[in-house]
Amino acid sequence: MTERLDALEAEAARAFEAAKDQGALEEARVRWLGRKSELTGLLRGLKDLSPEQRAAVGARANRIRENLESRYEEARSSLASAGAPSGSASAPALRDVTLPGRSIPRGHEHLLSQVLREVREIFHGMGFALAEGPQVEDDWHNFGALNIPKGHPARAATDTFYLRPDILLRTHTSSVQIRVMEKQQPPVRIICPGRVYRNEAVDATHHFEFHQLEGLYVDENVTLGDLKGTLDRFLKSFFGPATEMRFSPSYFPFVEPGAQVEIRCFFCGGKGCPVCGPLSGGWLEVLGAGMVHPNVFRAVSYDPERWTGFAFGAGIERLVMLRHGVPDLRLFYENDVRFLHQF
């Protein structure tokens, strides 16, 4: 068998060297290296040899295959550089240089990235700077400084991913507000977009990781009216100038008073539909907000008698689902090109 392998190698090498065009070279490749070639048949027959013969013959056959593949590539490159025709005809194929070029498929930003960029631009136009912080956070910045007491349900391991007793994956980007206020004296006007994590079961409206946008404005004589004006401009810029907004009382440990911000459902005009639900009265919850709690100011050594401020937070996925009618939050993370191509 070894003698036949050597002879086969020599015959194939001569065939590759003798090919005058790409068509002849391809015929030689199929004959000597294809699935039905003699070399492939010899390799398949190794199972019938003894273990000692199989090892020796197999190594030699593989070496010969690698050598022939290298010779084939050399011959193909040589013909291409010499301008050999692709077929067996001697005349080169004519090319129509007036035909339009082939378009190259181009990618684009993920829908969430597009919306995050748009949100940043809206708030940048209102004078808000961008702030970022670590996704692995400590208990103080994520809970303690935000007036979230020990024993609060949000601190439970059933809601939060703990890496160590006092180290966790941040549950909101409010922790960035604390880090900024620790380093900067008022006035402060920032937004903090980023990825957050919560220990939740995954379904159409919940996920263990998602994106959140936090906003903070601290200065002298900041009022609830400033908060309403800021959010009204943002929501009308994002959802459209006809957007109607309202505040409903709500509780959050880090603001007082707190509010749930809702917009009139733009799918049904407030008449009630599957999107806003039969009990909502035609309103959609979009974010939470309120005036910064004095205890939060004390935690960062701000004088609550001098400084006032407002804060707000929204889930980016929630905003995108409402504006674009996306029915399932999981679609943002499954990388299904049929979904991604729509945006």
Automatic annotation (TrEMBL):
Record PANTHER family: PHENYLALANINE--TRNA LIGASE, MITOCHONDRIAL, PHENYLALANYL-TRNA SYNTHETASE
InterPro entries: aa-tRNA-synth_II, aa-tRNA-synth_II/BPL/LPL, Phe-tRNA-synth_IIc_asu, Phe-tRNA_ligase_II_N, Phe_tRNA_ligase_alpha1_bac, Phenylalanyl-tRNA_Synthase, tRNA-bd_arm
Family recorded in the similarity comment: Belongs to the class-II aminoacyl-tRNA synthetase family. Phe-tRNA synthetase alpha subunit type 1 subfamily.
GO molecular function: ATP binding; magnesium ion binding; phenylalanine-tRNA ligase activity; tRNA binding
Top EC group: ligase
Protein known as: Phenylalanine--tRNA ligase alpha subunit
Binding of Mg(2+), residues: E256
Cofactor note: Binds 2 magnesium ions per tetramer.
Source domain of life: Bacteria
Pfam families: Phe_tRNA-synt_N, tRNA-synt_2d
EC id: 6.1.1.20
Subunit structure: Tetramer of two alpha and two beta subunits.
Subcellular location(s) per record: Cytoplasm
Cofactor entry: Mg(2+)
GO CC field: cytoplasm
Keywords, in A-Z order: Aminoacyl-tRNA synthetase, ATP-binding, Cytoplasm, Ligase, Magnesium, Metal-binding, Nucleotide-binding, Protein biosynthesis
Designated gene of the protein: pheS
Keyword Ligase applies: yes
Aminoacyl-transfer RNA synthetases class-II family profile domain span: 111-322
GO biological process: phenylalanyl-tRNA aminoacylation
Catalytic activity: tRNA(Phe) + L-phenylalanine + ATP = L-phenylalanyl-tRNA(Phe) + AMP + diphosphate + H(+)
